[in-house]
Amino acid sequence: MPRRRLLALAVALVPVAYLALWPVDADPEAWSPPEGGELVGAYAVNDGLAGHTVLHPEYHGAEAVTFDAEGRIVTGLLDGRIVRFAVDGAGAGETLANTGGRPLGLRYDRGGRLIVADAHRGLLEVGDAGAVKVLVDTHGGKPIRFCDDLAIAGDGTIYFSDASFLRSVEEWRVEVIEHRPNGRLLAYHPERGETTLVLGDLYFANGVALGPDEASVVVTELSSYRVTRVWLAGPKKGEHEVLIDDLPGFPDNITYSPERGAYWIALGSPRNGLVDGLSGWPGLRKAVLRLPEALQPAPVKHAIAVAVDDTGKVVAAPQYVDPSAYSPVSSVLEREGWLYLGSFAGDGVAKVKAPGVG
Question: Which residue has the higher pLDDT, 283 or 169?
Fold first, then answer.
């Protein structure tokens, strides 16, 4: 074979060899995604999240939203800051603290203390003067490597998720494509300074919320398109079950709305055909992880929020598909007729009129 043809063949084989052989720190499992999940029926595409207003667009990566005792918005940013600003966005924002990590979920407890799920540092408490205290960063001999969201019970127990005890927030794409049960739902008991395992073997444990009367706690499993419920009281205490699955996208944070009697689930993006199509082909998914990040599956500009009642029935699914959509949506919080949306990769906090109840 002429040298020129040999050289051309060698050049052609380089990318093939790279995709097949380059080492990747992942071991994907074969799995079968739930059928369905199309944007039809209760999930039919609509403009329910159009007409939003972005509050303080200078803030980047406002993953989750909560309110302080005066009704001001509090959120954590990509640069580690926790900021506060007026509910209508008027005036300048105020920096409350900098965790030195990546604050995600956050809530105030009944004593007025701000508790933060920090992806880098674990479960934190933020004091009035901005002092940051680590409450817990390991459990069961494993680091809490990707602390994601939390909910606080009336007795002070803090339920929080560790999306993966193997990978950091920066490796979220690897965690999704690999599809391994590295996530867990934990409970921190402040009165005794102990942490217990509520439920393990979760697929990208993400959002956490307490249900009505705190009889149960729910956790989203992002890479399995479902929400799992664990009973904390009643005849099913200690048991767990699926609240809803076959979701039409990747569920991120979840909050309970007493006004609606429903859980709001933020879907970061619709389901991805490549991710689902290669679910049974671990080797090919490994090859996808060898691609440049720009060529790997990523969220699209499609804002979706889904509300489900305590039986898992879909009662609302406002959306917006447009280059100007506030997307990806990572959290939805309903308050006094408005939805407040957070985004792990977007600018500011979005405010949009909530759909009618009933």
Answer: 169
| pLDDT tens, residue by residue, 284-295 | 888 888 778 776
**DSSP-based three-state secondary structure for 298:** coil
* Contacts for 14 with CB less than 8 Å, ≥ 6 apart: none
The CA distance from 117 to 120, in Å, is: 9
Note if the pTM is more than 0.85.
Answer: yes
CA nearest neighbour of 150 among 255, 11, 264, 43: 255
For residue 75, give Cα distances in angstroms to 43, 95, 109, 154, 209. 28, 10, 15, 22, 17
Among the listed ranges 193-202, 249-258, 295-304, which one has the minimum average pLDDT value? 295-304
pLDDT digits (tens, 9 = 90+) for 89-104: 999 999 999 999 999 9
Cβ neighbourhood burial of 336 (10 Å; 0-12, 13-18, 19+)? exposed
Cβ count near 313 (within 10 Å)? 11
Q: What is the DSSP letter of 90?
A: -
pLDDT tops 60 at residue 5: no
Angstrom CA distances, 219 to 12, 158, 226, 237, 284, stand at 46, 13, 9, 16, 29
Could you give the angle at the alpha carbon of 133 between the alpha carbons of 132 and 135, nearest 5°? 140
Tokens of 352: 């949009």
The answer, yes or no, to whether residue 277 has pLDDT greater than 60, is yes
Q: Quickly count: other Cβ atoms within 10 Å of residue 89's Cβ.
A: 16
| Cβ atoms of residues 98 and 80 within 8 Å | yes
Look at 37-41, 121-125, 354-358 and tell me which has the smallest mean pLDDT: 354-358
Question: Which one, of 12, 13, 30, 18, lies nearest residue 290 by Cα?
Answer: 18
Q: Which two tokens stand for residue 244?
A: 């809803």
Q: Tell me the pairing of strands 81-85 and 53-60.
A: unpaired
Indicate the helix (H) or strand (E) that contains 73: strand 73-76
Q: How far apart are the first and last CA of the chain?
A: 75
Instruction: Say if CB 136 and CB 117 are below 8 A apart.
Output: no
Examine residue 328 and say whether the peptide bond preceding it is cis (omega within 30 degrees of 0). Answer: yes
Where helices occur in the chain by DSSP H, the ranges are 3-21, 172-178, 273-277, 282-289
- Tokens for 304, please give them: 């979706």
